[in-house]
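Need residues for this backbone.
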């Protein structure tokens, strides 16, 4: 059955997903800004050995990459959850209309 994609439910879903994406972006931005600020104002700290022969620059950089992947997985999980909730609500509405 064809469903109109311009419904207010779809617009609400898009707003929820966009809002989530923006929040995750700003969370990542804070961590990335920390890396940049250390590089600009305290660059000597980036040479400090952290563990296993890795210096702070390498550990922080790898951490940023891993953190970005984790945020991407979280974004996908919650967007899928939002879409599933919307589909369930829509199916319930269609059942109600069919029985009325």
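Answer:
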């Amino acid at each position: 059955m064809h469903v109109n994609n311009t419904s207010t439910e779809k617009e609400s879903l898009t707003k929820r997903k966009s809002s989530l994406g923006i929040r995750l972006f700003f969370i990542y931005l804070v961590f990335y800004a920390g890396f940049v600020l250390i590089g600009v104002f305290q660059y000597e700290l980036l040479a400090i050995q952290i563990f296993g022969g890795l210096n702070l620059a390498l550990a922080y950089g790898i951490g940023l990459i891993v953190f970005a992947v984790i945020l991407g997985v979280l974004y996908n999980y919650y967007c899928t959850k939002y879409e599933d909730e919307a589909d369930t609500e829509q199916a319930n509405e269609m059942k109600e209309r069919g029985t009325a």
